[in-house]
């Protein structure tokens, strides 16, 4: 075993985060110590966050990314409690004509590549949740050839549909001799009514992209209306606001290529609600500015995370500290209300 | 397992392979320390580039390099040079005491040692009996068609010894750097682009270096090239390499914008012409103002009658206007035969012609005209690279007088002038990043910065896990 050193660390009562390479750190974590991993991996070479070779986003090809990612997945399998899950937030990636050798353009099945690596390292494929994204807003943001009205008129064979995101979920089954480690996740009827379960069971989670235009507000905004709210394309639709993310403005690194991609809080919260019991351990190897940690703490879970980038790590410390204090106030109010 | 991860991280750092000599034989004593260093580096790498600004001794380096390669391989070496540059090289070889250097016109002329020919004659040669190949002023590849460049790549692909020499690349000039790395067999230009560049959506998909890419990119370049715009970039003294001043004179040509004003989208006649920034609009505007700009240039050219002048244009109609306005001007035009071009360029080098009118893409590369301290551009194009290269014909080490550059442009052509100013600033900052990387390469530091943690982590008490047993996937 390598010397499991880190660059920095910070702890609260219910959280610990490390400024470290997630692979070397995960190698030092105990077996079966995590109840749910939920995170958004770097989307291959889409964004480069730092110059470090240890940065998973610092790669040239998808192949190189998966070579690197595999080392993490191997540890994820080991540290996940038997019978529990690992949920990753990903999407497929486009490639353009001017960067392809043969002049073609299209999609790279990045989400399927992730599945392949998880299966090869021992997980099973549990389910795929599609997160709806409004194609009209995608067109407005990125102007992709395949989504242009002009393309549709000129040669619709180039037209594609909008790019959704996915929550890909993988399960680590208990092997012989591990049955004792299995702990069911329980949802008593009194706490979660049938209607809520039917909502959570939907294969497509619709997010409200229209709020992209809003300035980033309260980072811990409550989950939006649970009622399906279908509207005309271009106005966004759904029950999950797309901008339900931690305040990204404060964490911007002037040298980072474009911006960081925080994992939406509402998607994270749904995963945590579905697949963990209160008090259990949630792990994110790519903590970023701490989104998964804030979601976990706000729901009474414990959180452990790693982040390589010192600026993001610093912001994560700040957000987690604040989140744990909010939770403490919250329970104080609950206590007063109970009296 | 741990070691496998370390190996994987190490694979992510990229450097060019060293495919040349382990020990470099003694080099001619006429070489300076800098020239000796660069020559030795290129001989060790086998396939490498010398990005050296004019006056640092590219010619001597390439001749010394070629001489050693010819000796090591026992085969002749062929060098491609721009038009009219060959004789200049032979004179330089004599001065440096380098033997067996000659200009050749076809395969049958080739003799042991170093052979020089024009790029235009590539089709008359075959790589079969050669030990190595080198390119002088390889930037010129950009002014040839893609076919020429591809043929040159094919020509050289089988040769183990390749070298390319040109001035330090223009900022963010991925075409040039990619062409060089591909020519040298270091990395495909497509791979280079996807590794360190990003297609900037704000700039119509034009590639630019990723911000985090700047350092690692230049570190990688330093593994197969030596770049210097002055000796101190490679750790040597700048004494004796002081550059004279470059004085820019903007000749702003007033134009009558009340003619050809056209009409707006609704068919309403316009009072004044509003020139667009599209290339179509720009060309129309340039054609309209060509004569006025030529007259503006002719004035100083005729005033300073005792001075030799380089007058640069971008189009034939500009050349026609200049020839009409300057009585003793001689033109070198694209449609002329290579022999005629060469003869006139040589005559200008000797001082037999006072005013030379030509285009940067014809004579902007490789020629040394330090005897000329006055240059004029009859127009301002968007190509900073061509402008820079053309100015460098006169403004180079060895130039004793300040160089005066006259730039004529109509007031309706302010956009390209502004672009030129901006690109010149970008060039400077890119040169700084490049020089920085060369220093790091000289310091033998590692290419990608490594992960060096020092703090022992404390795991939270609640992270107990199963404790016993190995949970690894079988």
Automatic annotation (TrEMBL), chain A:
Q: Which UniProt keywords apply?
A: Methyltransferase, Transferase
Q: Which reaction does it catalyse?
A: a 2'-deoxyadenosine in DNA + S-adenosyl-L-methionine = an N(6)-methyl-2'-deoxyadenosine in DNA + S-adenosyl-L-homocysteine + H(+)
Gene Ontology MF term list: DNA binding; N-methyltransferase activity; site-specific DNA-methyltransferase (adenine-specific) activity
Query: What is this enzyme's class at the first EC digit?
Result: transferase
**Any transmembrane segments, and where?**
none
DNA methylase N-4/N-6 domain boundaries: 34-315
Q: What is the E.C. number?
A: 2.1.1.-
Instruction: Tell me which Gene Ontology terms the entry assigns under biological process.
Output: methylation
What is the official name of this protein in its record? Methyltransferase
UniProtKB/TrEMBL annotation, chain B:
Which GO-annotated molecular functions does the record name? Answer: helicase activity
Keywords on this record?
A: ATP-binding, Helicase, Hydrolase, Nucleotide-binding
The record's section on InterPro entries has: Helicase_C-like (IPR001650), P-loop_NTPase (IPR027417)
Q: Where is the Helicase C-terminal domain?
A: 266-438
Please verify whether the record's keywords include ATP-binding. Answer: yes
* Name this polypeptide is given: Helicase
What organism does this protein naturally occur in?
A: Azospirillum thermophilum
